[in-house]
């Protein structure tokens, strides 16, 4: 039976996850945010304690939200991961299940369990890129453009531009803006140029530049300026980019980001019907 770890054991779990970096990157960073009080709505399950073989982080399901969000799952073996996903005490499979940023080597067992549970799966693969302070020089903000952090008044507009917005994503974005660095570009007359926001799992995310402002170097300004905010905090900068989004990969690589490890990670929506993308 899965063990829902109490808070007193979470620092030990963090040390266990650290041993398996970078494959546990998202889980590790989510747990760090949780321990700092920045992402309290998580539960951490292991297959056994104190010597786990698999771990899963799940959002506490909000009332009226018809999905279970698994913020990460990792195991020393596929068997341990499969057993944890199937454990009825975690109560995953009574509705849509979203599995985020799971190391690609675990894809077969994820698909097998989803099929057993009668779910259709929509998935994509992304790569994790990293930059250090020696890799990036922040691009200068062009004349006539203003830079600031994202404010709560910007959330509705930003949420409408996010390709992966979901029920409650405006609340998630609001919390991200409150706890993590962000960058917002606008013209002198106040027109929104683009933005990027730090996430609960330690990456720069949700990059967007409005079509009329593209091909002017604004994306490089946004990414490099936000990366600098992480460097100023004594942290490296990370980003997940879809494997087939070659323009975004080239953008980040041109700034100095490099792949952390081969194989990538998979994101899966498991439902009775495909995820609308």
Characterize this entry briefly.
It contains eight helices and 13 strands.
Mean pLDDT: 93
Number of DSSP helical runs? 8
Radius of gyration: 19 Å
**Secondary-structure element string:** EHHEEEHEHEEHHEEEHEHEE
Shape: globular
Largest sheet: 9 strands, mixed
N/C terminus separation: 35 Å
Helix content: 25-40%
Overall structural class, as computed from helix and strand content, comes to alpha+beta
List the SSEs and their pairings.
Layout: E1 3-4, H1 10-18, H2 25-35, E2 42-46, E3 54-59, E4 67-75, H3 78-86, E5 96-103, H4 107-116, E6 120-131, E7 145-148, H5 155-161, H6 169-179, E8 182-187, E9 192-198, E10 204-209, H7 218-232, E11 237-242, H8 246-255, E12 258-259, E13 265-271
Note the main attributes of this structure.
alpha+beta, nine-stranded mixed beta sheet, four-stranded antiparallel beta sheet, 30% helix, 29% strand, globular
Structure, described:
The model has no long low-confidence stretch (mean pLDDT 93). It is built from eight helices and 13 strands. Strands 1, 2, 3, 4, 5, 6, 11, 12 and 13 form a nine-stranded mixed sheet that branches. Strands 7-8-9-10 form a four-stranded antiparallel sheet, with helices on both faces. The protein has helices at 10-18, 25-35, 78-86, 107-116, 155-161, 169-179, 218-232, 246-255, and strands spanning 3-4, 42-46, 54-59, 67-75, 96-103, 120-131, 145-148, 182-187, 192-198, 204-209, 237-242, 258-259, 265-271. Helix 1 runs antiparallel to helix 2 and helix 3 (78-86) runs parallel beside helix 4. It starts with a strand and ends in a 6-residue tail after the last strand. By secondary structure, it is an alpha+beta fold. A hairpin with a 7-residue loop joins strand 3 (54-59) and strand 4. Helix content is 30%, strand content 29%. The chain is globular and about 60 Å long.
């Amino acid at each position: 039976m899965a063990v829902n770890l109490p808070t007193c054991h979470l620092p030990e779990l963090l040390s266990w996850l650290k041993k398996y970096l970078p494959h546990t990157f998202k889980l590790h960073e989510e747990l760090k945010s949780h321990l700092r009080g920045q992402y309290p709505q998580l539960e951490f399950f292991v297959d056994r304690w104190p010597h786990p073989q698999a771990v899963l982080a799940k959002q506490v399901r909000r009332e009226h939200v018809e999905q279970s969000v698994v913020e990460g799952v990792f195991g020393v073996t596929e068997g341990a991961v499969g057993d944890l996903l199937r454990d009825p005490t975690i109560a995953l499979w009574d509705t849509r299940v979203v599995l985020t940023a799971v190391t690609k080597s675990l894809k077969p067992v994820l698909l097998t369990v989803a099929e057993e549970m009668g779910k259709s799966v929509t998935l994509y693969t992304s790569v994790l890129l990293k930059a250090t302070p020696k890799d990036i020089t922040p691009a200068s903000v062009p004349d006539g453009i203003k830079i600031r952090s994202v404010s709560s008044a910007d959330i509705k507009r930003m949420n409408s531009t996010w390709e992966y917005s979901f029920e409650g994503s405006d609340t998630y974005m609001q919390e991200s803006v409150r706890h993590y660095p962000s960058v917002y570009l606008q013209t002198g007359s106040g027109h929104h140029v683009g933005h990027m926001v730090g996430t609960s799992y330690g990456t720069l995310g949700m990059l967007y530049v409005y079509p009329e402002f593209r091909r002017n170097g604004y994306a490089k300004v946004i990414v490099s300026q936000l990366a600098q905010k992480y460097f100023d905090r004594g942290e490296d900068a990370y980003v997940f980019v879809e494997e087939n989004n070659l323009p975004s990969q080239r953008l980040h690589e041109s700034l100095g980001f490099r792949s952390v490890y081969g194989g990538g990670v998979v994101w899966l929506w498991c439902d009775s019907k495909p995820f609308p993308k």
